[in-house]
Design a protein that fits this description.
The protein is α/β, with parallel strands linked by helices. It is built from ten helices and eight strands. Strands 1, 2, 3, 4, 5, 6, 7 and 8 form an eight-stranded mixed sheet that branches. The structure holds adenosine monophosphate (AMP), zinc ion and fe (iii) ion (2 copies). The site of adenosine monophosphate (AMP) has 12 residues, from helix 5 and helix 6.
Length: 279
């Protein structure tokens, strides 16, 4: 029986299940704990935690911050104090920048005759809106075969409606998480297409700024990849974490708790994470 899933998106960012629905799903499939890790916002945690309390599911507060270190690198943060004076200005800045970019993207699409109105998107999707929401709407308009297809056709870098947003430096994300009482973890290390030497360089750079963990088990990572990442984590003294990156219907091949079928994250890893965060 699978125990935990420490990487879950909700409607607070680009997932399609509400935080309460995710907690209910976790109970249905027999998980003990989940972490809510929405992009650039912690706002989904509270609803999930309230639902989790009623259902007997432990809910961990988390976040996933997009950063840049040559390529796009994602940093997870667990047990951040949401009231932290260090955190708020950084997240507010990121969300404002997202909104400026998004509004321009909606205007660009409207100029091409598509029914996009950013105020309506805000009302429907909430505060942390990204390109996946645009992809979902383009798919709903019948302009693509799936959300993924819409993303690749229209909003991927280089495509017709793509506009960039400002990505914060990796040092700032890691340090902000640390200063906010959280534990910073390198997300899905194979996504960055780095060889062993480059990955070690990334880990060492992040550790110099306070990184304390690495996501070793992740949807689609096979046993050999997991063994390699766990070996690296042990060598560097990093906490091991794992999660599916569940997004509901926006990533239909990924299921909560089990990923693509191979994922299995032990509760003991959460206990160590909690101890590290002093929770
Ligand atoms: P943004 O931060 O708004 O520029 O959007 C980037 C986000 O889109 C990333 O964090 C990914 O999670 C997501 N993403 C990237 N590729 C795809 C895809 N093919 N389908 C759906 N979402 C994607
Ligand atoms: Zn996402
Ligand atoms: Fe990610
Ligand atoms: Fe994610």
């Amino acid at each position: 029986m699978r125990e935990i899933d420490l990487h879950v998106h909700t409607t607070a960012s680009d997932g399609t299940c509400t935080p309460a629905e995710v907690a209910a799903l976790a109970q249905k499939i027999g998980l003990k704990a989940i972490a809510i890790t929405d992009h650039d916002t912690e706002s989904g945690y509270f609803e999930a935690a309230e639902a989790g309390e009623k259902l007997g599911i432990e809910v961990v507060p988390g976040i996933e911050i997009s950063t840049k270190y040559g390529v796009a690198v994602h940093i997870l943060g667990y047990f951040i104090d949401p009231q932290s004076p260090e955190l708020r200005p950084v997240l507010d800045w990121v969300i404002n920048d997202r909104n400026d970019r998004n509004r321009k993207m909606a205007e660009l699409m409207a100029a091409y005759g598509l029914p996009f109105d950013y105020d309506e998107m805000r009302a429907r999707f909430g505060e942390s809106i990204g390109r996946p929401h645009f992809a979902r709407m383009l798919y709903e308009l019948g302009l693509a075969e799936s959300v993924n297809d819409a993303f690749q056709r229209y909003v991927e870098k280089g495509q017709k409606y793509y506009l960039p947003r400002t990505i914060i430096p990796i040092e700032m994300a890691v340090e902000t998480i640390c200063r906010s009482g959280g534990v910073a973890v390198l997300a899905h290390p194979f996504q960055y297409k780095k060889d062993d030497k480059e990955l070690r360089e990334l880990i060492e750079h992040c550790m110099a700024h306070g990184l304390r963990g690495m996501e070793c088990r992740y949807s689609g990572y096979d046993a050999q990849q997991v063994a390699y990442l766990e070996g690296l984590a042990e060598e560097y003294g990093l906490l091991k974490t794992g999660g599916s990156d569940f997004h509901g219907a926006n990533k239909p091949t990924i299921s909560l708790g089990v990923g693509k079928g191979e994922l299995d994250v032990p509760y003991a890893w959460l206990e160590r994470l909690k101890a590290a965060a002093d929770k």
